[in-house]
Amino acid sequence: MRVRDVSLAAALASVPALATQSVWWSLLVVVTAAILSANARVAAVLVAYWLPAAIGAPWPAAGLAAAAVWTLVGAQFKAVLSWRPRMSPKTATVAGAMGLAFGGAALLIQPSSAFGSLWLPVARPHTVVIAMAVVGLAAFNAIGEEILWRKVLPSLMSSGGEYWRVALVALSFGIAHLHGIPSGMTGVGLAAAYSYFLTTLHQRRGFAAVVAAHFVTDVVLFSAVAATTTFALDF
């Protein structure tokens, strides 16, 4: 059922795309997808995905929660445990270059006025602490999102050929980054294109490669955000 696949893709995209407006709109999309799937395992993954956003948890929590439930209830536990983040030097180079390319492109496209708008009511932490936060957040975000869009969504889709799956995953990934860097439809288009390249990288080089590429991109973007963030005692 292509309608079912579209509803699943929309559900994954809706939580980050709509949560800033209303978690209830995203709940409507998630519930619709769960009903159309008529599958308890799928419903459990979707509920786990929506709940962190409902309680105001930071974005990576939603992806990690859904990935954890998918792993536990979807007979994926052994496969996840057997995964080892090993890459050849060539694969690591390709992944790193792809991550830097898309991270740099995002920074070039994002209007400079959009940076510097984040204000935190705390004293500026030590540079090492900020760097550790950037790396940690980038790692969690990359792992959670790549499990969701490179593993969970394709495994739950039930119809269509390879091109259908790749296109739908890319569209879902793009819409999920509506409020990313860059934001708006430009960000959706860039993220959708990045998803296509990540899926290709996943097929040719493995899961560790896409996590590495995504991690590098996030480090670039999060570093830019951290560098332009204003802290309470900066005045």
| Element-level helix/strand string | HHHHHHEHHHHE
Distance between the termini: 57 Å
Give the count of structural domains: 1
Number of helices: 10
Number of separate strands? 2
Give the oligomer, counting copies of the same chain as homo and different chains as hetero. Answer: single chain
Shape: globular
Low confidence ranges: none
- Structural class of the secondary elements? mainly alpha
Mean pLDDT: 85
User: Major sheet, described briefly?
Assistant: 2 strands, parallel
Rg result: 18 Å
Helix fraction bin: over 70%
Q: Trace the largest sheet across and list its strands.
A: 1-2
Features:
2 strands, about 240 residues, about 0% strand, single chain, mainly alpha, globular, two-stranded parallel ribbon, 10 helices
Explain this structure to me?
- This protein is mainly alpha-helical and 235 residues long.
- It has one domain.
- The chain has ten helices and two strands; from the N terminus they run ααααααβααααβ.
- The protein has helices at residues 2-18, 23-37, 40-54, 59-73, 77-81, 89-109, 127-156, 162-176, 184-205, 207-228, and strands at residues 119-120, 230-231.
- A two-stranded parallel sheet has the order 1-2.
- The model has no long low-confidence stretch (mean pLDDT 85).
